[in-house]
Amino acid sequence: MPYVKLPDGTVAHVKVAARPGPQCVAMQDSGRRCLKRSKYQCDYRLPSGATCDVHLCGDHARTMGPDRHYCPPHFQMDCQQQHRKLFTALGR
Ligand SMILES: [Zn+2]
Ligand SMILES: [Zn+2]
């Protein structure tokens, strides 16, 4: 913890700025991460049974239901899976 000595000899404790909270990890078209303040985490269920849990801002979280959000890549994956199921059901 940093301390500064004041001219009158007293030692003041410098408050370290609070670390910024989790930031949105979504990639933007420019290829850079969004880094806006995270409001959601991806609820996509991974094969391991854990959830993806990446942080997402309100712009990048894809709402899948009440209190259920996906990151953009998992949203796309889920769409593809739904489509495949549909095709399978149709006999393709
Ligand atoms: Zn974002
Ligand atoms: Zn995800």
Explain the layout of strands and helices:
Elements: E1 3-5, E2 11-13, E3 40-41, E4 55-56, E5 62-65, E6 68-70, H1 72-89
Antiparallel strand pairs: 1-2, 3-4, 5-6
One zinc ion binds at residues 24, 26, 34, 36, 56-57, 59-60.
Structure description:
The protein has about 90 residues and is an alpha+beta fold. It has one domain. The protein is built from one helix and six strands; from the N terminus they run ββββββα. It has one helix at about 70-90; strands spanning about 5, 10-15, 40, 55, 60-65, 70. A two-stranded antiparallel ribbon has the order 1-2. Strand 1 and strand 2 (about 10-15) form a beta hairpin. The longest helix has 18 residues, at about 70-90. The chain is elongated and about 85 Å long. The mean pLDDT is about 90. The structure holds zinc ion (ZN) (2 copies). The site of one zinc ion has 8 residues, from loops.
Q: Calculate Rg over CA atoms.
A: 22 Å
Count structural domains. Answer: 1
Q: Which percent bin holds the helix content?
A: 10-25%
Residue runs with pLDDT of under 50 for 5 or more positions: none
Oligomeric state of the chains present here: single chain
Class by SSE composition: alpha+beta
Spatial shape = elongated
Main sheet: strands, sense, barrel:
2 strands, antiparallel
Give the topology string: H per helix, E per strand.
EEEEEEH
**Mean pLDDT across all residues, rounded?**
89
Strand content: 15-25%
Walk across the major sheet and give the strand order. 1-2
Q: Report the strand count.
A: 6
